[in-house]
């Protein structure tokens, strides 16, 4: 075994060691004072590390091996859709015709890029059942915010902007939903879930009124359950004069099976960096396109891409638009990947995605149900929640189970979310895993449940095999040490 921590480059530095060897330069050196004002010139060298090329290679390769990603192992992080994304889409996004163009190029020299965006919008209309798409928003949360600005513009256009100030959000919602509503200037009203983990119709009826701007919902919801009353929910909100927002971050549960449009939603966002072939998790570029029904088209972000004959144009004359929400055309590279993915999968392939995602989640759920409490026992969609209350009574917490999974080489599921489930574990296996992989994970979870009874120390002391054990997470978040102090 190598040392647990890689030494820092500064620590392995030795004076005079070099990573290159060049012949003496025959060009006469320019005096620094000829090119820089005297007061800007260093008196001492910068103390940069001095290393051989091999040392640098080993250092960075070592760091990269400490990273865990979908290409290293199973990553069942609920609500995050950590699935494998085909590399061919990465390759296509790097084609020079896509990667080397400039957003300020005249439209007539970028017809291919505009056509790709136009076609992607057409495809996403079908996926969502909406009438218009904007590719501008760069993330799910930004899509939510832009969508809520459209709510606002719509109510203002109807002379009800002042009056409709409340956004209803179920207590199982993703945290970005209430946050986006607040950023968009709304008051948030929480709707309690019923015993089946779904929106309570009575609670909803009690909450809607002339001050309702709309409801934010995801279906399947964050518990992985399909809102079977969605048509009635939509009617209740619409009758009260509100609009419905669909959080489509995890669309892989319904692709080709149903659309938010059919369910009665007015505005939707998708996370192309979850369901449509862009890797995510490192805060890297994302894309959260929004879709709207016809009557909201006028408020969509500007500029837009329009087709006239065989020519694609960028249009900016949209007086009712909420305006620009992101520079240029959004994250174009992410949109290229999504388009390549949709075209290579085809309609049938996308349907298969949702069938496999749902099958995998139900299979895992069925295997784990005898060992963990399942607060909602009905069939799930692409993800499901377990509760660790049975293990908690034995002194083993959900956090311990999550840490123990790391020893088996798995990334831990989402824990303690949604908040309405005690000791929650939220598991999303995704459509891209093989059965043996699902079984290996189930076997580990079962062994952990058995250890919680017989050898709780092996769970509460975990992880045993990792470079870093348990961190003081509060101190790490509140007082992070992010600079190197030379000892
Ligand atoms: C990930 C996610 C979001 C937020 O998407 P970002 O791109 O991270 O802003 C919103 N809702 C749900 C259900 C999600 O899973």
Automatic annotation (TrEMBL):
N6-(pyridoxal phosphate)lysine, modified sites: 274
Its EC number(s): 1.4.4.2
UniProt keyword annotations, A-Z: Oxidoreductase, Pyridoxal phosphate
Catalytic activity: N(6)-[(R)-lipoyl]-L-lysyl-[glycine-cleavage complex H protein] + glycine + H(+) = N(6)-[(R)-S(8)-aminomethyldihydrolipoyl]-L-lysyl-[glycine-cleavage complex H protein] + CO2
Glycine dehydrogenase C-terminal domain: residues covered: 354-454
Pfam families with a match to the protein in the record: Aminotran_5, GcvP2_C
Transmembrane segments: none
Cofactor(s) this protein cannot do without: pyridoxal 5'-phosphate
Protein known as: Probable glycine dehydrogenase (decarboxylating) subunit 2
Family as reported in the entry's similarity comment: Belongs to the GcvP family. C-terminal subunit subfamily.
GO molecular function, one term: glycine binding
Any single biological process term in GO: glycine decarboxylation via glycine cleavage system
Span of domain Aminotransferase class V: 162-281
Enzyme class: oxidoreductase
Subunit structure: The glycine cleavage system is composed of four proteins: P, T, L and H. In this organism, the P 'protein' is a heterodimer of two subunits.
Stated role: The glycine cleavage system catalyzes the degradation of glycine. The P protein binds the alpha-amino group of glycine through its pyridoxal phosphate cofactor; CO(2) is released and the remaining methylamine moiety is then transferred to the lipoamide cofactor of the H protein.
InterPro entries for this protein: Aminotrans_V_dom, GcvPB, GDC-P_C, GDC_P, PyrdxlP-dep_Trfase, PyrdxlP-dep_Trfase_major, PyrdxlP-dep_Trfase_small
Domain of life: Bacteria
GO cellular component, as recorded: cytosol; glycine cleavage complex
SUPFAM superfamilies per record: PLP-dependent transferases
